[in-house]
Write a structure and sequence with these properties.
Chain A: GO terms for molecular function: GTP binding; GTPase activity. Chain A: This is Ras-related protein RABF1. Chain A: InterPro entries: P-loop_NTPase, Small_GTP-bd, Small_GTPase. Chain A: Keywords: Nucleotide-binding. The complex is a heterodimer of chains A (200) and B (579). Chain A is of the alpha/beta class. Chain A contains seven helices and six strands. Chain A has a single domain, classed as Rossmann fold, CATH 3.40.50. Chain A is globular and about 45 Å long. In chain B, strand 5 and strand 6 form a beta hairpin. In chain B, helix 1 crosses helix 18. Chain B has 19 helices and 16 strands. With 579 residues, chain B is α+β, with helices and mostly antiparallel strands. Classes of the chains: A alpha/beta (200), B alpha+beta (579). The interface between A and B is large, with 53 and 65 residues. Strand 2 of chain A pairs antiparallel with strand 9 of chain B, so a sheet runs across the interface.
Chain lengths: 200, 579
């Protein structure tokens, strides 16, 4: 393939690549899950992931380009392990059209906004709609209000977010990547809600 | 030029064949016009063109308005507006709806608050001042500090909407952008195209690329051709991020606001603009390799070739801005400018350092309309692998390829050798062998012999007062430059020499009076010597008091030295890497 062609998607159907993309693997004790983070730029998607995967927080914000790929495995109390293969997508507008590249086949979508920015909350709603239209039908969606440590500057109320999340069948949590508040809880909660766990 | 078998160890007066040839060429070239005058007459190389300070120029901005003179059809005389006939459209084909590309019109709800901090750790150590000099968001065209900047870059749309400004917040520069747009469209309405305006010490250079206008305002005395080349690269960097299908957005909506689509890319552009003052690749249109033992590089080539055969379009292993190894799939070739833009994009994007990434990317010379998909992964703090594919689903395959490549590179010790090479640095003028018959492939054969004898101008630099050189292999599209050493030991001096080379390059490649074969110039800063043959271009800087005959002799030695080391400093591959 690909000698002199630069037309994308020409080989999109290649089966050897798609093998890896199954959102989950059918071993009830060792679950592998594709998870995608979506949200406006600057809401802290990368910070949430880096806090979860590496336990780090870097206050100097680094713009994500395209999408970063990280993975982290957690063990649940019933001795099942869940390996999250995380796509941390760029929030910039130019990547919006390319998002399907990353969220297609995802079992979990984490939609993030910044509790100090109503605009980012609107953007989160845009992503929820997009996922409802084009995401996997049984996708687990979480709505995350990040930067909870900045509560004195809060401009999106928890009530408003809860109401929106319930209406759309989402799990809602407020986190702070800075203080690590609720970060692990977020991923543990997601793991509990995975359909293959509930059926097993 | 062939190898010189002259091994009789003759003292200086007896010139070798090569040396005589070069002396002859240089004499021949200057026979009709006295040396130095020939080029000054061209007006491109005034002796006093250097400014010591970069960011803020001492005087106030030129107060007198630029004179626009019509009828300056030749377009190169100073103090006039330069026009060329007709509308050259650079062969821009209408966007084809079938080719994939940018779809920026989607997902534009919500504000794009592109707050960007371009923190950088590695690059800052190397290139000290680019991030200090970047973006002053609080400035606009009314601030004195903004007006004192020595070199501005602007990008705007054909409707006058600001897209990018090197300094200041582009949103506050709407009025200024509209003025630039008015100047450009005024000339275009006359079925003509504006090239530049000269106003006092300032040169305003324009580049029109379809609906996107690029402007540089500079008082750095860089030649028009150099500044235009920089605008071309700036445009290329935009295409890397958005592809040329961005033009379609302007077809649909002439007042389209493109600035939000470049959100988060400030660091990419400021790093590119900074490279205009330190990276010779920006005007040589060639890339440079990290010096490595031939077998080490071949080991890296071999493993990259394996993955290229498995459906990777380009596999590129780089260390900072130098190539370790590079392989393209059959028939695919990578333009040196695309490599520059790609490596600049990767090096200036911090998120690539954090974790493996998969990003759409466009190589403008390869296909300006479509994205390729790049898998980028840092193997260590300096060394990174970029695997480019046409397949948007290719991530897992490329990841597998990377794991395979990484394990081979670790096993065969390539990564250690790369680190060692960084520490050792490249070619040092002090190590230039005095004996041109020396044919060993070792980078530093006999350091004691490396210093020229009693004829040396001083103890610093190389033999015969050689301070620095750049050798560009024309067939390979690669160059090698010596490391900076004493007395060129500050970034200010590096930049000054770099600009002198750039000027030399432009004057050597001048289409109206050139191209030239040799040039020898002396001013209060350097002796500069340039020699161009079918196979290579050599640019060398000497002590300003250097002896001419000795300098010429030394240049011959440099060429011989480079040829002796070519297996270590250049990349030779099976498939063609360039056009």
């Amino acid at each position: 393939m690909g000698c002199a062609s630069s037309i994308p998607d020409k080989n999109a159907g290649r089966s050897d690549n798609l093998n890896f993309e199954h959102s989950t693997v059918n071993d009830p004790k060792n679950i592998r899950v594709k998870l995608v983070l979506l949200g406006d730029s600057g809401v802290g998607k990368s910070c949430i992931v880096l806090r979860f995967v590496r336990g780090q927080f870097d206050p100097t914000s680094k713009v994500t380009v395209g999408a970063s790929f990280l993975s982290q495995t957690i063990a649940l109390q019933d001795s099942t392990t869940v390996k999250f293969e995380i796509w941390d997508t760029a929030g910039q507008e130019r990547y919006a059209a390319l998002a399907p590249l990353y969220y297609r086949g995802a079992a979990v979508a984490v939609v993030v906004y910044d509790i100090t920015s109503p605009d980012s909350f609107l953007k989160a709603q845009y992503w929820v709609k997009e996922l409802q239209k084009h995401g996997s039908p049984d996708i687990v969606m979480a709505l995350v209000g990040n930067k909870a440590d900045l509560h004195e500057n809060r401009r999106v109320s928890a009530e408003e977010a809860v109401e929106y999340a319930e209406k759309n069948g989402m799990f809602f949590i407020e986190t702070s990547a800075k203080t690590a508040d609720n970060i692990n809880q977020l991923f543990e909660e997601i793991a509990k809600r995975l359909p293959q766990r509930q059926s097993s | 030029m062939d190898s010189d078998p002259d091994t009789n160890g003759a003292p200086e007066p007896q010139l070798s064949e090569d040396e005589m040839r070069l002396s002859y060429l240089s004499l021949e070239d200057s026979r009709h016009v006295p040396q130095g005058v020939r080029l000054e007459r061209n007006g491109s190389l005034p002796a006093d063109f250097y400014d010591a300070r970069e960011d803020i120029k001492p005087d106030d901005v030129e107060a007198s308005p630029p004179r626009m003179v019509t009828g300056g059809r030749e377009g190169s005389s100073k103090g006039k507006i330069g026009l060329i006939e007709g509308l050259e459209m650079d062969g821009e084909a209408p966007p084809s709806p079938s080719s994939s590309g940018y779809a920026g019109e989607r997902g534009s709800s919500g504000g794009s608050s592109g707050t960007v901090e371009a923190a950088d750790s590695g690059e800052r150590v190397l290139h000290d001042d680019w991030d200090k000099g970047k973006r002053r968001i609080d400035e606009d065209d009314t601030s004195a500090s903004w007006r004192k900047r020595k070199k501005h870059f602007f990008v705007l749309s054909h409707s006058g909407k600001p897209i990018f400004s090197r300094y200041g917040d582009e949103h506050k520069l709407a009025g200024f952008s509209a003025t630039l747009q008015a100047i450009i469209s005024f000339v275009e309405n006359g079925d003509d195209r504006i090239k530049f305006v000269r106003a006092g010490r300032h040169q305003v250079v324009f580049l029109v690329k379809g609906p996107i206008y690029l402007v540089c305002i500079s008082c750095t005395e860089e030649p028009y051709e150099a500044l235009r080349g920089q605008l071309e690269l700036l445009y290329g960097q935009i295409l890397v991020i958005l592809t040329k299908s961005i033009d379609r957005c302007f077809v649909k909506n002439p007042k389209f606001d493109m600035a939000p689509l470049l959100g988060g890319t400030d660091a990419v552009f400021s790093s590119l603009i900074h490279s205009f003052s330190w990276n010779p690749a920006t005007f040589l249109h060639a890339y440079t390799c990290l010096p490595l033992a031939y077998s080490t590089r071949q080991a890296a080539v071999a493993i990259l070739q394996d993955v290229a055969d498995s459906g990777v379009l380009f596999a590129i292993l780089m260390c900072r801005h130098k190539v370790v190894s590079l392989v393209g799939a059959q028939k695919a070739s990578l333009h040196p400018d695309d490599m520059l833009l790609l490596s600049n994009f990767i090096l200036s994007t911090e998120s690539f350092r954090t974790s493996e990434a998969f990003s759409p990317i466009c190589l403008p010379h390869y296909n300006s309309m479509a994205f390729l998909y790049a898998y980028v992964h840092y193997l260590d703090v300096d060394t990174y692998l970029a695997l480019l594919s046409t397949n948007s689903e290719g991530f897992y395959h490329l990841k597998e390829c990377r794991i395979q490549i990484e394990s081979v590179l670790v096993k065969s010790n390539v990564l250690c050798e790369v680190q060692k090479s960084i520490l050792d640095g490249g070619l040092h003028v002090e190590d230039l062998p005095v004996d041109s018959s020396l044919r060993s492939g070792l980078p530093c054969p006999h350091p004691s012999q490396g210093r020229a004898g009693p004829s040396s101008m001083s103890d610093i630099g190389g033999p015969a007062g050689l301070w620095h050189f750049i050798y560009r292999s024309i067939n390979l599209d690669q160059y090698v430059s010596s490391e900076f050493s004493s007395p060129l030991n500050s970034s200010r001096l590096h930049k000054r020499l770099y600009r002198a080379y750039q000027k030399l390059y432009v004057s050597m490649h001048d289409r109206q009076i050139g191209p030239h074969k040799t040039q020898f110039r002396r001013d209060e800063n350097y002796v500069l010597l340039c020699w161009i043959t079918q196979d290579f271009e050599l640019y060398a800087a000497f002590d300003p008091l250097a002896d001419k005959a000795l300098a010429i002799k030394t240049c011959n030695r440099v060429c011989q030295w480079v040829r002796d080391l070519e297996n270590e400093i250049f990349l030779f591959g099976g498939s063609p890497f360039s056009w």
